[in-house]
Write a structure and sequence with these properties.
Chain lengths: 373, 449
């Protein structure tokens, strides 16, 4: 087939682009060093405190963990069901609303009407402070909310699969993609119908919730620490599941070669259901954690996050779970540190640009290939 | 609605047997309308007009004509955009979901080129004539389309979808940015207006009716029209009449788009496009320059999208990046193409009209009408509506908040079409490329080894 020829041509074609990216990255690094040292050499250099860089990086890691967590599910559905699921972002929102409804119910039950709590402050006029949901004051409520976010979103993901995707299992990826856009519209606007359209505060503010790490000059919020622990914990659980359980092996087999997996007797539908449960659940959990980080909630935040999640998944290599995690971290860091060089209006655009560059230069992603390993 | 019911009525006609002649005449008429694309489009439009008239005739002629104007405008602009998308997706199989971005580039470029260098408010422009602005807008959209085509050469359809979506978001975020606005003002002397957007130049159609577009100073032509249809005649308000004037322009552009795309689709270039859609490898093996065709299709399609953006949003007085150019706009256009059936130009026109009337504008109007009939307080939130345990109160909440339900309905329609009728209303018609009809095979052909 002459694949070696074409890959050489491809590589040759990719080289100028790659060279450009390497040069640009080098220039940015030199500039960063000059900025940190406080020297100005014409256009490059300037001043930048180590503290600011540190906090930018830390914020990037936290956001990146949340995006990576959401990306795992997207990557899994892509590799096992072979379509880009555009309703994934709205699963993220569902997790946030259902999880915070439950967390509020536990944190504020008794003083505040149930309908205000379950709708995450859409009904009634209870303030976030009155409900008092915060990891330091109501850790139990926050934890149960996380579990609820996982469970509710997993159930919804399976229900969506049964209703929308299962009847068209044998159709091409684009048809499924269009169906998922329909599913996304349905879920997003049911959320708006049920929970209202306004952006509102969720978490209470608690004194002394910042923990300072003096040597690094970092100020770490208790909620950021919670996200770090929860996200890393879920990722490790995911890793253990994929590598050491029968289900994980089956999933990797399905992702690697579906026909071969079917021949060896892997129960495909059960694996698909498990994929939706895990992928959807992780999406819900990540949405819940994102709200914990940002402190506000809005019915379409997951949809707005979707493109960043796609960027992460593509960066890591679509289909690879570990790629999604690494991609999430890279996108998170690009998102926050790009403000050193460009106006903050553009940080999201910078993340998308990184995604597009990656697709142009190395479409298979950092980790390459469609494998769930 | 009578037109929509007609096919069903005529189908049952022959079996009823009674009055044979008039039934068959109707049937013949309907058959002729189905055969002719124009008849189909006009029939659909008339059915929509009838339904809209039924909904609002109690409010007087002015509101009926006003509603018809809104529906026709939306139908035409969706049809224009759907045609442009159909060239890329329907004909060539390029899954471009960055339509909103290309439209934004077109209309913004037009605005920046045409706006006065020293406006009373808003960002400055270059102050060039409108035709220059329109050509520049199409050119910029085509240029961006050429850039977007580069990934299309290498990527699978779903990756291309994500790239084009990302590109359209980059466009929107850039237009939103005040830093980008200032940068453009410093370098080329024309700005985007950032998040506040910019006012659009005067619509020449408006100048046809009013001297310098100023209300109260009609031209000779305006005097004539306003005298017959306006407050002295039928009592239709001036903005609605001017709107109808603009609709005539849009209809002319629609015919132009349609003829261009039909011509393109039937040309050798069009057959290559379809070959690429069906099987890229085969087209490549037959010596077709697949990459060049893809780039050309992207450039032509995006230029048309830019023009559609200019015709649509350029006539709306003011453009702003959010929420006008959110990806949702792209999905609207996609739904219009899918309803009509991707690959069919008539289907795209029909899909645009049906989408605008039935899915986009219809639910709002119906919801508003129903809400007017309910005599109940609207509860402040969904939870309050449920807690009231009163179906009427719940209905009041639902009709007051019909917008989200409309999107849910839209999603359901999309999923339904993809499940049951992936080919749309008209679908991909049988396109004969061979000189002889290959569909009629002799019996027993299957046993032929």
């Amino acid at each position: 087939m002459g694949t070696t020829d074409s890959s050489i041509v491809d590589a040759a074609r990719a080289r100028p682009g790659l060279l450009f990216v390497v040069l640009l990255a080098g220039l940015l690094l030199v500039d960063l060093a000059a900025k940190l040292a406080g020297v100005g050499l014409g256009p490059i250099g300037g001043s930048l405190s180590v503290d600011r860089l540190g906090s930018n990086l830390w914020n990037g890691v936290v956001i990146g963990l949340v995006i990576g967590l959401a990306g795992i599910g997207l990557s899994m559905t892509y590799s096992i069901l072979s379509f880009a699921n555009f309703s994934h972002g709205d699963l993220v929102s569902v997790g946030a609303f259902s999880g915070w409804g439950v967390a509020f119910l536990i944190a504020g039950l008794g003083d505040i009407p149930v309908r205000a709590l379950l709708t995450v402050r859409d009904a009634g006029n209870a303030s976030p402070g009155a409900i008092g949901a915060h990891i330091l004051t109501t850790p139990g409520a926050i934890l149960v909310g996380l579990v609820a976010a996982f469970v509710v979103t997993a159930l919804l993901a399976v229900a969506l699969d049964r209703a929308f995707y299962k009847p068209m299992r044998d159709r091409d990826g684009i048809s499924l993609l269009i169906a998922s856009i329909g599913a996304a519209l349905i879920v997003r606007y049911l959320l708006q119908f049920g929970y209202g359209s306004d952006r509102r505060g969720v978490t209470a503010s608690v004194d002394a919730s910042n923990l300072a790490f003096d040597p690094l000059g970092l100020s770490v919020n208790a909620h950021e620490l919670t996200i770090l622990v929860a996200a890393v914990g879920l990722m490790l659980a995911m890793h253990g599941m994929l590598q050491h359980t029968k289900l994980g092996t089956a999933m990797r087999a399905m992702a690697d070669n579906k026909d071969l997996a079917l021949i060896t007797g892997i129960p495909a539908e059960r694996v698909v259901t498990a994929t939706w449960i895990i992928g959807g659940g992780l999406a819900g959990a990540s949405g819940y954690l994102y709200v914990l980080l940002r402190g506000t909630i809005q019915f379409d935040f997951g949809w707005l996050l979707l493109l960043l999640i796609f960027a992460a998944v593509i960066l890591g290599g679509i289909g690879s779970v570990y790629g999604a995690i690494v991609g999430g971290l890279v996108i998170g860091v690009v998102f926050t540190t790009s403000t050193i060089w460009i106006p903050s209006d553009f940080n999201q655009a910078a993340a998308f640009a990184v995604m597009i560059l990656m697709l142009l230069l190395r479409p298979e992603g950092l980790f390459g290939g469609v494998t769930t390993a | 609605m009578s037109d929509a019911d007609a096919p069903g009525g005529s189908a049952s006609g022959p079996s009823a047997g009674g009055s044979e002649a008039p039934e068959s005449a109707t049937a013949a008429l309907v058959e002729a309308a189905r055969e002719s694309d124009l008849g189909l489009v006009v029939g659909t439009l008339l059915a929509i007009y009838a339904a809209a008239t039924l909904l609002t005739f109690t409010d007087g002629l002015n509101s009926v004509v006003g509603l018809l104007e809104t529906l026709t405008f939306l139908g035409l602009v969706y049809a224009l955009t759907a045609l442009a998308l159909n060239l890329q997706w329907g004909y060539t199989g390029l899954f471009n979901i960055g339509v909103a971005g290309f439209m934004a580039v077109g209309v913004y470029t037009m605005g920046m080129v045409v706006r006065s260098p020293d406006p009373a408010f808003g960002p400055p422009g270059l102050g060039l004539p409108l035709p220059v602005g329109i050509v520049a807008g199409m050119g910029m959209a085509a240029l961006l389309g050429g850039v977007a085509a580069l990934p299309a050469l290498r990527l699978k359809a779903d990756y291309l979808a994500i790239v084009t979506l990302g590109l359209s978001e980059i466009v929107r975020l850039s237009l939103q940015s005040s830093a980008f606005d200032n940068f453009l003002r410093d370098t080329i002397g024309a700005g985007t207006g950032g998040g506040r957007g910019m006012g659009m130049p005067d619509n020449p159609v408006r100048d046809l009716f009013l001297v310098d577009g100023q209300a109260g100073t009609p031209t000779a032509f305006g005097d004539l029209v306003f005298g017959v249809f306006g407050s002295d005649g039928l009592g239709i308000s001036q903005p609605i009449l001017i709107g109808w004037g603009y609709i005539a322009v849009l209809a002319a552009f629609l015919v132009g788009f349609y003829l261009l795309l039909e011509r393109l689709g039937r040309s050798p270039f069009g057959r290559t496009m379809k070959a690429i859609r069906e099987d890229e490898l085969v087209a490549d093996s037959l010596g077709k320059d697949v990459n060049l065709v893809k780039i050309k299709v992207f450039v032509i399609g995006c230029a048309l999208m830019g023009l559609a953006g200019i015709l649509w949003f350029g006539s709306q007085g003011n453009v702003s990046p959010t929420p006008q150019f959110r990806p949702l706009l792209t999905f609207y256009v996609f739904i219009a193409v899918i309803i009509g059936g991707s690959g069919s130009n008539t289907g795209s026109v029909l899909g645009g009209i049906v989408f605008a009337a039935v899915l986009f504008e219809g639910p709002r109007r119906v919801g508003g009408t129903v809400r007017g009939l309910i005599d109940a307080q609207t509860p402040p939130s969904f939870a309050d509506a449920v807690a009231s345990l009163d179906p009427v109160t719940f209905l009041a909440y639902a009709t007051e908040n019909v917008a989200p339900l409309q999107f849910v309905f839209l999603g359901l329609v999309l999923v339904f079409i993809i499940h049951r009728r992936p080919e749309g209303i008209l679908g991909d018609r049988i396109e004969t490329a061979a000189a002889v009809d290959l569909s009629e095979r002799p019996a027993g052909g299957e046993s032929d080894e």
